[in-house]
Amino acid sequence: MEVPTGRSVLGEAIRSQRGDVALSAVLASAHQVGEALVPVLIGVAIDRAIAGDDGRALVVWLGVLGVVYLGLSWGFRIGAYAGERAGVRAAHGLRLAVVERVLDPRGDREARLPGTLAAIATEDARRVGAVNVALMAGIAALVGIGTGAVVLLRISVALGLVVLVGTPLLLWLGHLLSKPLERRSRAEQERAAHASAVATDLVSGLRVLKGIGAESAAVARYRRISGDSLGATLRAARAEAWQNGTVLALTGVFIAVVALVGGRLAAEGEISLGELVSAVGLALLLLGPLSVLAWVNAEFAQGRASAARVAEVLASPAGVVDGDGVVDGSAGRVRVAGVSFGSLRDVDLEVGAGELLGVVAPDPRDAVALLKLLGREADPAEGVVELDGVSLATLHPGAVRDAILVAAHDADLFAGGLVDNVAVRASDVDVAIAAAGADEVVAAVGEGSVGERGLKLSGGQRQRVALARALAADASVLVLHDPTTAVDAVTEARIAEGLRALRHGRTTVVVTTSPALLAVTDRVVLISGGRTEDVGEHGELVGRHEGYRATVLS
After folding, report:
1. 554: which residues sit within 8 A by CB, 6+ positions away?
2. Using one digit for the tens of pLDDT, what is the confidence trace for 358-413?
3. Cα-Cα-Cα-Cα dihedral of 320, 323, 325, 328, to 10°?
4. CATH 1.20.1560.10 corresponds to the domain 6-314
5. Would you indicate the residue range of the signal peptide (predicted)?
6. Which CATH fold would you assign to the domain 334-407+475-553?
């Protein structure tokens, strides 16, 4: 499959809307032709009606002008609607493509902040889609200029040649002037996206920042990043203003040359008074299409920069490769054999069908690495991870996650009701809510919203709701990472018993250092220094292993 590039993204955004773009270009071009005909008709009216003192002819030509105005008006309305529709639909398609790539089960090797991805899926997609509007306007402007050139050629070859030679020169100069804008527009979008991402992180972590007294440091950091974004925006604005101003000045000189040549021809008697009026009117009319072309250059420059950013997301390599293997997963036997990944070195671990296994990893990096492997966010450099005897590396990541649910420690909640959050992957949630100790949270919150990312709840309440959601999914294999670090000891003991009862006969792995949770497990595996150091029941390990005892009882 072809790797997306900025050029291909831009091209596809246009091709996907070619019907609306073609319709809008035709109608907008008809509008421009009508605009070009107006000064011509005025000149004809002067020569045939006013100069000849023919009132009837004047009425006829005024009627013709009215019909032309009506046609060009409706042509503009319908054409502009079709062009805007093409731009909006293209932007919508790009947003869907970006979101689909972000949600791809294979993951992404590139680490991008959520705010950056949001900016690419919104503002950059909008700018790429807007190229369809610019293309429609550019085609119409060229048709208008061409019509004016043809009319001027009929009036005078010299006038027509001035337009035919000068227009391509102006277009070339406008393209050259758009290059700095393209570079600075991309930098502007990158800085703005980064500032948005940092602001999102600061808002989501506001409670923690206040707790540790780091508000001033966070504000200083955001002020610096926001200042960088402002500087990039101002540089892009200066580049756009310089381009527009320069092109407008060049356009003014061009129009003045056309008017000067026409006036001289009229003075020498080579064209009539009506033709002079037509020539001057066309010269002034050309100011509009030429200004439109300058705007089109700016829009294409910004569109190319944004298309390159969209292409980077679409073309980013997957975290893991596809697999076509098949696994039932209902037994829930998990085996980790000789695995080396991240901080892990030659780790061995087996979970029997229906077993509740505890995993203690004093080094948080070991726990994170193990969770990534079990959820197939990554494949091990050495060794194998198996589900019911089938290597996870041979399965599609989506199939792995249908069978193995990894509930991360920092799971987010969605805006909305508490029960709605728990029932994301299930319909019967009452038992899961009780097992997770979240029934108290339901009683406190009721049917109200938990807020964006659950910010209306305390840390312990959010943790219990996230645990209830994981339990309600009733996965064949459930992997929990520190699910009770923010709850009190009494609630933790209740959750431990509820977890064991609810997951009876279903394979469960709890990566934790909580003695209450470890006490209800069937076995515990100790991973220390990136290796499997010991295996046994919780009580046995507490009695015989000093390092284990220090980790879980300190």
Report:
1. none
2. 999 999 999 999 999 999 988 898 999 999 989 998 988 888 888 999 998 877 78
3. 50
4. yes
5. none
6. Rossmann fold (3.40.50)
